[in-house]
Amino acid sequence: MNSISIPISTASYATRPNHRHQKLISELNYRDVPLMPMHAPYVVEYLDRLIATVDRAIADCKKVFAVRVDLHLPMLMIGQSAYDNRVIEAFFKSLKAKLAAEHKRRSQTAQYVARCPVRYVWAREQVNAEQPHYHVLLLMNGNFFQSLGDMNYQNNYLSGFIAKAWQSALGIPAEMTFPLVHFPKECIYKVSGMTDRERLSLLQRSSYLCKHQSKDINDSQHNFGVSRL
After folding, report:
1. Which of 8, 115, 190, 219 lies at 20 to 30 Å from 14 by C-alpha?
2. In this predicted model, what pLDDT tens digit does every residue of 107-148 receive, in sequence order?
3. What number is the average pLDDT over the span 8-25?
4. Contact call for residues 127 and 214 (beta carbons, < 8 A)
5. Are 166 and 181 within 8 A, CB to CB?
6. For the chain, what is the largest distance between any 2 Cα atoms, rounded to a whole number of angstroms?
7. Residue 71's closest CA among 145, 219, 172, 155?
């Protein structure tokens, strides 16, 4: 797998309040990626990790099938402990297991089935709601997935795997889970190489996960993360 270097930017920075080790940027462009001014300022470290994760996926798979999904938490019952980031970790673990099983199933009837490593970026946010929610970017091999499938979450398409992985992470019935899974409008991106315009479109759209606003800096939870692949 090709290594991805992170060039030094000459952009101007501002220090993030209460997080002096993090820097903010409010410019219209960062490392040749167009940003959305209505969501500024952005956390520079998050932008760097987003770009690196997307570029590693492209370098590894050549064709990348990317999906944006929002995962919401249910209302807490009386006496129930609040959800922490273990729930998003459990989601990714469950999703990887389901996709590994799907790869095995396809391999039984086909001579060759493309690998399906799962890379991801996530952001935890909370504005006025009682519970936080997660914005997630999933990056998969475009030779393994070409569509999300229908929104009948009981299916064995990618949409169903995502919904059922969130159900597994939450540990609640399907009928309670599926309304908590939301695919935004135009949530799919197909990227073929580093020079594909779709790469910049994906990064611009996904930069939303890197914005400073609506991330709770006063609790003990991480607000942003990426896969280790």
Report:
1. 219
2. 988 878 888 899 999 999 987 767 889 999 999 999 999 999
3. 55
4. yes
5. yes
6. 55
7. 172
Place of tokens 């790869």: 103
Q: What tokens appear for 43 in the block?
A: 């956390």
Mean pLDDT of 74-100: 86
Give the span between the Cα atoms of 194 and 184, in whole angstroms.
25
- Give me the mean pLDDT over the 160-164 stretch: 94
Q: What is the pTM of this model?
A: 0.87
Q: In what order do the strands lie in the sheet with 42-43?
A: 14-16, 19-25, 42-43
pLDDT at 104 over 50: yes
In terms of residues, how long is the chain? 229
Residue 59, token pair as written in the block? 């370098």
> Residue 202 burial by CB count (10 A; 0-12/13-18/19+): exposed, middle or buried?
buried
**Cβ atoms of 192 and 142 closer than 8 Å:** yes
* Kind and range of the H or E run holding 75: none
Cβ atoms of residues 57 and 64 within 8 Å: yes
Nearest to 115 by CA among 155, 75, 143, 87: 143
Q: Within 10 Å of residue 127's Cβ, how many Cβ atoms?
A: 10
pLDDT at 79: 55
